[in-house]
Amino acid sequence: MASLKCLLRSGRNAVSVVLRREFHRTLPASLQVTVRDALNQAMDEELERDERVFLLGEEVAQYDGAYKVSRGLWKKYGDKRIIDTPITEMGFAGIAVGAAMGGLRPICEFMTFNFSMQAIDQVINSAAKTYYMSAGLQQVPIVFRGPNGASAGVAAQHSQCFAAWYAHCPGLKVVSPWNSEDAKGLLKAAVRDDNPVVFLENELMYGVPFEMSEEAQSKDFLIPIGKAKIERQGDRVTLVSHSRLVSHCLDAAAVLSKDGIECEVINLRTIRPMDMETIEKSVIKTNHLITVEGGWPQFGVGAEISARIMEGPAFNYLDAPVARVTGVDIPMPYAKILEDHSIPQVKDIIFTVKKTLNI
């Protein structure tokens, strides 16, 4: 406090520096935070920071969200900022896009991205294309978020991964976080972005706790959209994945490490724009590449990465063809045993690594 009093004469900036230091000293060095709570923190902080931000969707307000991601926000911000909508994705997505064009910054929650198909005209034709078609005069700062991909026991109409669908479209940024720091930092960056962002969460990750660093606990914590992260260093083979399958890659890498096979695991974080520089540098080091995703193989994220590697400088460093581990090319079955065989498992990644290395 004595130092603070001394700095009062030095002006507001000096006082602000000291206050920030004091605040950070009160934060634990790291903290266990679930992905659900990280997303909640991100929205809470952005709602507080910018009065133009609001959340709308089915059951996001009084019910605290279908997955409790928006828990407590309605009580804190009220009906004008946290808005329950009828069950009509085309309708409330259109309202959100119009609000974004009018100067607000909506967060539009789909209860599952499978239901975003009802609103794809609003997402693509109204949101994604407007900035280009207006010659840069009309921005559409909107985030479409919700769970994506397979959950458990919800069958075909609730189990698709839409990463490749939306990443196909110019005008959209497509984000697919894995852990709690990804979820918080990327969602805050998405809310602040002046262009439409599709934010693909994973229902099975909501309740998973991860260490959150002191830096990530700050209200100023952002992760730049378009930058991948190397989650594990290795020199034998590169594993590239996103969302929940990053966990599978890390588990596979831990098993393979016991056999002396060190895998480099890359968490894409963002599907569009894609950080090919990080992938290419890793391939040049390891000489092998395997992509892992929960979506279907045809025209998938892994297919795009494979094509870009073949067209780029890293192709000459490959000692084996790029391999893909994907979901099976069928609608998701309901029976658990069939469901387990329809999405990548750790053993599938291990098998593909050994096959690629001819072990």
From TrEMBL:
Q: Which residues form the Transketolase-like pyrimidine-binding domain?
A: 33-208
Primary localisation category: mitochondrion
Q: Which UniProt keywords apply?
A: Carbohydrate metabolism, Glucose metabolism, Metal-binding, Mitochondrion, Oxidoreductase, Potassium, Pyruvate, Thiamine pyrophosphate, Transit peptide
Please give the Pfam families that the UniProt record associates with this protein: Transket_pyr (PF02779), Transketolase_C (PF02780)
Query: What are the annotated GO cellular component locations?
Result: mitochondrion; pyruvate dehydrogenase complex
* Gene3D superfamilies (alphabetical): 3.40.50.920, 3.40.50.970
Needed cofactors, names only, are: thiamine diphosphate
An example GO biological process term is: pyruvate decarboxylation to acetyl-CoA
Return the InterPro entries for the record.
PDHB_mito-type (IPR027110), THDP-binding (IPR029061), Transketo_C/PFOR_II (IPR009014), Transketolase-like_Pyr-bd (IPR005475), Transketolase_C (IPR033248)
The UniProt catalytic activity note for this protein reads: N(6)-[(R)-lipoyl]-L-lysyl-[protein] + pyruvate + H(+) = N(6)-[(R)-S(8)-acetyldihydrolipoyl]-L-lysyl-[protein] + CO2
EC identifiers of the protein:
1.2.4.1
Q: Which GO terms describe its molecular function?
A: metal ion binding; pyruvate dehydrogenase (acetyl-transferring) activity
- Enzymatic class: oxidoreductase
Compartments reported by the entry: Mitochondrion
Described purpose of this protein according to its UniProt entry: The pyruvate dehydrogenase complex catalyzes the overall conversion of pyruvate to acetyl-CoA and CO2.
Known partners and oligomeric status:
Heterotetramer of two PDHA1 and two PDHB subunits. The heterotetramer interacts with DLAT, and is part of the multimeric pyruvate dehydrogenase complex that contains multiple copies of pyruvate dehydrogenase (E1), dihydrolipoamide acetyltransferase (DLAT, E2) and lipoamide dehydrogenase (DLD, E3). These subunits are bound to an inner core composed of about 48 DLAT and 12 PDHX molecules. Interacts with DLAT.
What name goes with this protein? Pyruvate dehydrogenase E1 component subunit beta
Originating organism:
Paramormyrops kingsleyae
